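Tip: read the tokens left to right.
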């Protein structure tokens, strides 16, 4: 009577959801971090490319 069913007392059964959420939250954190870093890199690269194109146009215009 003290143990009607051994399923709920199993520690792995209760921790599967937590570990799954922990893994997913870690994946989401890495994805968000990579997105932010990628956005910064893309912005800097785009700025450099636009500056290079502007410089080329200035060189062509001043010739």
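Filled-in amino acids:
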């Amino acid at each position: 009577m003290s143990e009607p069913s051994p399923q709920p007392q199993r520690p792995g059964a209760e921790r599967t959801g937590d570990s799954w959420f922990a893994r997913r939250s870690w994946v989401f954190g890495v994805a968000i971090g990579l997105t932010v870093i990628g956005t910064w890199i893309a912005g800097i690269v785009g700025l450099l490319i636009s500056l290079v194109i502007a410089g080329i146009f200035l060189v062509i215009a001043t010739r």
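Residues 11-62 form the longest helix (52 residues). Residues 31-63 form one domain.
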